[in-house]
Write a structure and sequence with these properties.
The chain has 144 residues and is an all-alpha fold. It is built from eight helices and no strands. It is globular and about 45 Å long.
């Protein structure tokens, strides 16, 4: 594990970062100064990125390091929740449908997380979504 993180977490993080920008693998590769085949290897789980290459990818997307730590925490939490749930053994024909459903849900969660994480917080008059709908908790208030 590089930097104490599961290599599979880097795979998810890179896919997430690329999706946040709406880039294809070539776009992310060009912005990060690496080859598209390297991005493909990382996303397929064939190999984890080196710390330097991962820093290049994060810098290309423009995400602060503190945000990346939060993203890795979300990835670890989601992975732990999936392992704790009792998943029934799927029939062979259901695997693709289950994978598609999980993918859709992960994408929805990732988009929602990205909008919260990347939401500008420098304007004190701007309310977060939780403040606006009245669901903000004291811990949420401390973050803004």
């Amino acid at each position: 594990m590089a930097n104490g993180k599961d290599p599979a977490d880097y795979r998810v993080a890179i896919i997430f970062l690329r999706a946040v920008r709406g880039w294809d693998q070539g776009g992310l590769a060009a912005a990060a100064g690496v080859s598209a085949s390297l991005i493909s290897r990382y996303e397929s789980g064939e190999a984890p990125p080196t710390p330097k290459t991962f820093e290049q990818i994060v810098a290309a997307v423009g995400v602060p390091a503190t945000t990346m730590e939060r993203l890795f925490a979300v990835i670890r939490s989601a992975r732990a929740a999936m392992h704790q749930s009792a998943w029934p053994e799927p029939a062979a024909g259901d695997v693709d449908a289950i994978a598609a459903e999980i993918s859709d849900r992960v994408f929805d969660i990732a988009r929602a997380a990205a909008s919260l994480v990347l939401e500008p917080i420098s304007d004190p008059s701007r309310k977060t979504r939780r403040q606006a709908d009245g669901t903000a908790k004291p811990a949420d208030e401390a973050l803004i």
